Amino acid sequence: MSSSLRRGRKTAVVHGEPEPKGWLGLAFILPSFLFIVLLFLLPLIMTVWMSFYNWPLLGRAKFIGLANYAELLGDAQLWHSLGFTLLYTVLVTVALFLVAFPLALLVDRPLRIAGVFRTVYFMPVVIGFGAASTLWMWLLNPDSGVFAQVLRATGLIDSAPRPLESFWPALAVIILMVVWKTSGFTMIILLTGLQSISTDVIEAAKIDGANVWSRFRRITLPLMRNSVVLALVLNVTSSMLAFDQFFIITQGGPSNSTISAVFSIYLASFSSYRLGYGSAISFALLIVLVAISAVQFVFLRQRPEEG
Amino acid sequence: MERLNYKPQPKPASEQLSYLTFILVAVVFALFFVMPIVWSFANSFKPAAEALANPAALFSKAFSLENYRRLEHVGAGWYVYAGNSVVIAAGTVLLTVLVSVPAGYGFSKFRFPGQGLLFVLIMATMMIPFQSILTPLFLILKAVRLQNNLFGLVLIYVTFQLPFSVFMMRNAFDAVPKALIEAARIDGASQATILRRIMLPIALPGVATVAMFAFLNSWNEFLAALIFLSDQNKFTLPIMLVNVSSGIYGIIDWGALQAGIAVTMVPCIVLFLLLQRYYVRGLTAGAVK
Fold it and tell me: Transmembrane stretches, by residue range (chain A) (predicted)?
């Protein structure tokens, strides 16, 4: 690297050019390019390729055309997991906005203490899903968890509920954990939008006699549309890819009702060792994700820019 | 100064009331976010009998490292898993910085044909999640004998850390005005001097951001580690946690689990508290605009 740097200087000095020679820039980018080609582009192409094969972990792969896709269309469990993932995505996204919006409004003030609260709300974001999931497993554990303890102490209940044994309570546990772990993230994105609004606009509306609610609805919300859409896109995409919390907390149960889309890729490829079928599911999920993102971006483009 | 004038000056009653309401609401939320962490951490130092009797109590009568000692008997022992996580995180941080800093520099300060296309290609990694190419990645790592290998996992983490990191570093180098570089060149500064004295100080916060995200993401990553590591003694901390939480003979050692959670989450929280302004910078980099 250092020798190419020196050569760069020489050309600059000799020819008196303001910019070093272009090919040198290419050399700087080469390592990144290699990573992307070998560990992103190649496997991406392979995913599509493998999806047309019956590809066991051991033994010979066999071309089967669209058979994996035909199976996928008739796979009731897979449709269920896709439906479940969509349901989860909608519920989590709504829940995150319901918690994160008030949080962002709450800490959007020029006080040092507000900064401290921001940090506190954000803290769970940096903890991994593995640690967060096992932490909430313990909190909600009916035998030795804190919630069971508190419930018993109030005397209202003598045996704590077992939420993981039926679908809706299990889903509620997951959503509660995800809201705890990630609303700080949404809060920061929304806060960035809030802080980009000039106080003059708000002051002017105040003078015109707009009340708190109409100021929020007519001015704040439209002006921070970009950060709302950004938070939406990020939350939807990451929820569609959720895996850790289901693998760890519900283990897909009760009776396979909480198997997410990525979970079903994991099961096909690394539990049944049907790599071709796993690839077909991966590619289908990829298409769904790209479609969702495209719809969101079209939505973002259509509205005129305000402010 | 402006921020501080709330406390010392006497305010009208209505403003004091709204300040009190703010504090009250904010504290309730703070409890929701911080108590699970505090509870779990406090319980990791309790002897088993006491933790079972009263898990909600924060202060233990007897401080005990019993849970951490039992965690030594989980699989290969927690320090082996912590060691693996440290190796993987350090490797990912180092390699991500080594690869993305030159790339950011190349994109920012050079002009060459195909540059735009290359940039889009690297950024495309951000749109397509690694979960959807896991199956072939497994085969590729197997083919080059890096499956079930810590370095193999590092290579994957670096790849998916790249678009964010290259973008971050390009913006960092963009912040160095061309006039400054030219002036230094006219003054006779060598390219090395320009890099060290002008580029580096301006790019350093970008490097801190890139390094921090690389650390947190590789330290916490679960799915790829679950798939690509198969030997008991190669697991990382998140995989260890799952093994403890699924229990031995169906019985979960909750005390050891608390100790494991503490070992896994405390480094992340400490790092975040030390470098939080870089974290927020990273989250908002380019994304909102």
Answer: 23-50, 86-107, 119-139, 167-191, 227-248, 277-300
Q: Is B109 strand, coil or helix?
A: helix
Could you tell me if residue A203 is inside a domain?
Answer: yes
Domain count across chain B: 1
Q: Do A106 and B29 make contact, defined as CB atoms within 8 angstroms?
A: yes
- Low-confidence stretches of chain A (pLDDT beneath 70): 1-21, 158, 160, 300-307
The count of CB pairs under 8 A between chains A and B is 290
**pLDDT tens by residue, A48-63:** 999 999 999 888 999 9
pLDDT for res A8:
40
Residues whose CB is less than 8 angstroms from the CB of residue A67 and which lie 6 or more positions away in sequence, other chains included: A54
Contact A5 B195 (CB under 8 A): yes
Q: Does A301 touch chain B (CB under 8 A)?
A: no
Please judge whether A126 and B272 are an interchain contact, meaning their C-beta atoms are less than 8 angstroms apart.
Answer: yes
Assess if residue B62 is contained within a domain: no
Structure confidence at residue B89 (pLDDT): 98
Interface confidence (ipTM) of the complex: 0.90
Do A80 and A31 lie in a common domain? no
A96-140 pLDDT, tens per residue? 999 999 999 999 988 999 999 999 999 999 999 999 999 999 999
Amino acid at B281: R
Interface check B157 vs A, CB under 8 A: no
Nearest-by-CA chain B residue for A136: B36
Nearest CA in chain A to B238: A130
Residue of A nearest to B164 (CA): A32
Return the pLDDT at A9: 40
CB B226 within 8 A of CB B241: no
- Partners of B4 on chain A (C-beta within 8 Å) are 112
CATH number, domain with residue B121: 1.10.3720.10
Domain residues for the domain of A182 are 71-306
What's the pLDDT at A11? 39
User: Which of B4, B105, B261 lies closest to A112 in CB terms?
Assistant: B4
Do residues A173 and A120 share a domain? yes
Contact call for B272 and A123, based on CB within 8 A: yes
* Optimal mutation site among A32, A223, A238, interface B, most CBs of chain B within 10 A: A32
Could you report the per-residue pLDDT of B20-41, keeping only the tens digit for each?
999 999 999 999 999 999 999 9
Q: Does the CB of B155 have a partner CB in chain A at under 8 Å?
A: yes
- Picking from B112, B268, B279, the nearest residue to A25 by CB comes out as B112
List helix spans (H) across chain B. Answer: 13-43, 48-53, 66-71, 78-109, 115-127, 134-143, 150-174, 178-186, 191-193, 200-220, 223-228, 237-245, 254-274, 276-284
CA distance to A144, A288, B56, per residue, from A139 (Å)? 8, 35, 9
Task: Pick the closest to residue B244 from B254, B235, B231 (CA basis).
Answer: B254
Indicate the average pLDDT of chain B. 89
